[in-house]
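for the record, two folds in this file. i put them one after another cuz i was lazy. first one right below, seq on top, structure tokens after. the second one comes after a little note so u can tell where it starts
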Amino acid sequence: MNSIIDRINQFDIILASRSSRRQALLRQLDIKFRVSALDIKEVFPDNIPVSEVAEYISNQKIAGYPENKIKDNSLIITADTIVTIDKIILGKPDNEKDAFQMLQMLSGRSHEVITGVSIKSLKHSSSFSSSTTVKFKNLTEQEINYYINQYQPFDKAGAYGIQEWIGKIGVESIEGSFYNVMGLPIQKLYLELCNFTN
């Protein structure tokens, strides 16, 4: 009898994301996939709740995947991650000053990291969000500057990667999925992929 991983791997799984972190996490599930990223503008209506933004953008990404590229055994996965504090969404910083301001805002406080994930085949589709609460200690200006200079976190929402130096010295507590903060809630994703094999 085939294992659940064998059944999942019968699909031609396409991860529509350039994120090296998402690719590494999906690989750690022993799932075979290929990458086919899309250039979709990450925009959303002003009137939707912050908690729904990541899933909305993820759904926009999967809706933008060309129908003629979806075959009988295709399974498309898209994702989007946001960092939010005081109902403000912190995107990717434009420069060092922007990154510094974001990390100062997160310093000594709790914030939410929300990842929306969408999955689509020719017959089925599903989407979900995962939320994690992260609390930073009070970060000194020297610590923030060191992290920005050494790690250049300009491709990361909220200007940080929890798996990097700043996470190791700065995170006091975390409630929810650690991997969600990295950009892919792989336990929930695994459960959803299992549903596609039924």
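(here's the note) second protein begins now
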Amino acid sequence: MEATGGYEQPVVRALHSVGIALSVLEPSRVRAFARAKGLRAKTDPIDAAVLRAFGEALVPRATTAPSAEQQRLGELVTRRRQLTESATCESNRAAHYTDTMARRQAAAFMRLLRLQIAQCEKAMATLIAGDLVMVPRAARLQEIPGVGAITAATLIAEMPELGTLRDESAAALAGVAPYNRDSGPFAGFSSYRGWPGLRALCPL
């Protein structure tokens, strides 16, 4: 199945709960496969047929079932990101307010957002500290210069494959592996591509 911004998660959990293997795929890969087959239209029946054909042809790696702790950490990381994005938007809007009431409401809203961000960060830290698997992973990640507690928590939540992949595969999944764009004598600029959610680790 395709990743659909979280809407696929109830199905993922249901299938994992009864031991059915599944693969959650990056939508752009599936669309590229459909275009390669000459399919330009996009409907639910077409999508279902393309996903089946993709699975049969490429046999993608099964998505590992997350633990309850991993699942909760993922929700906390997502919630923190959403709150941070809301805080950025509200801060940008508030910079242009001249009305006293509007400025007062914006300030109160920003205080609430900051409080909830701090609550998420505390919950994330508590959850990691109480999990025997996450503790060493977080410590190892924070040995990397520039990687703090929030970045480590985000990577643990959104890249559970860490520790089981080759360096090249992990970098590609995170979207930090440069891909060449060369043809004959032409040497283009290398670019980064990968799972959008992992490229969006900021704001951290």
